[in-house]
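WARN retry 2 of 3 for item q-0093 after timeout on previous attempt; input resubmitted unchanged.
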Amino acid sequence: MRTLRVALGERSYPIHVGSGLLGDAGLIAPLLAQKRAAVVTNATVAPLYLGRLSAALAAAGVDVIPVVLPDGEEHKNWQTLNLIFDALIERRAERRTTLIALGGGVVGDMTGFAAATWQRGAPFIQVPTTLLAQVDSSVGGKTAINHPRGKNMIGAFYQPRLVLADLDTLSTLPERELKAGLAEVIKTALIRDASFFGWIEANIGALLSRDVAALEHAVLRCCEIKAEVVAADETEQDLRAILNFGHTFGHAIEAGLGYGHWLHGEAIGAGMVMAADLSRRLGGLDEGTANRITRLIERTGLPIAGPAFTAERYIELMSVDKKVRDGTLQFVVLEGLGKARVRSDAPPATVKNTLSAWATASVPTLPG
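OK item q-0093 returned
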């Protein structure tokens, strides 16, 4: 097991990465405020891992409240959030009852938001079971639910007490989910570490074949980078916004298609191609580098073109994104591999040229 730390003063917390961690209650039990925890998961993950984690906790004397949600981005809403609160009320959970998120990004985001608002703040722990959640969404304290018109529009910054990334859970991950997680691995390299991007290019085959050593390296490096960025800018006032590379376009794709039609990582794959193209048009990237990015995303098996919405529709969808500031669209662009910045001065005509070039995919292009 390897351990990293997110440095946030009194709210600092560890990230444990390794194999066989779900059965080690000693990593979780000492952090519980009381010997009681609600384990929130979904209908897909529950048959695989809920029993293992619950049994380990029970053996350590912890009373477990299981909460099983429907699976899918389309369920990341108020109605599903209330299922968590219903279970907590029914079992008379207290403010000191820890909420444990066992699942992917949707489970993590919803459990974190429930913890942030349950009796005005209960402790929570992230146990991510997808690659995307292990490398990105479980770290940093972003919690949210979706609004029909915008992704993650309702939420809070609320840090976990612990992130426990058991690499064994990736063995049961569907191939489509694995590829979606690799989108966030690529994004992390693009914004912060050119050498890591080169490593991904050289090892994409090993990652796709689930080589444990390759996956461990990717998870650790992504967590290191995200921990550094979050420690420097917890609530996304400046630096942390670079983590949204490809997301302005990607979130528009998700909202425009309807949540759950494309996985988040699939939308971000196409969104990164668009963002790289926009970076090239704005003078930050040369054509060869932009093509390298596109080739890697394509080799990963991710979409490289967004759905064929009109440019006007994309702009309408992007205009309700969280990254709009003072009514102006903000785009994360690259000024070289590993060098990202936020720009609000992209000419509308240039954005439309990018959309004309890359918003060309028929709908649907992937299985729903």
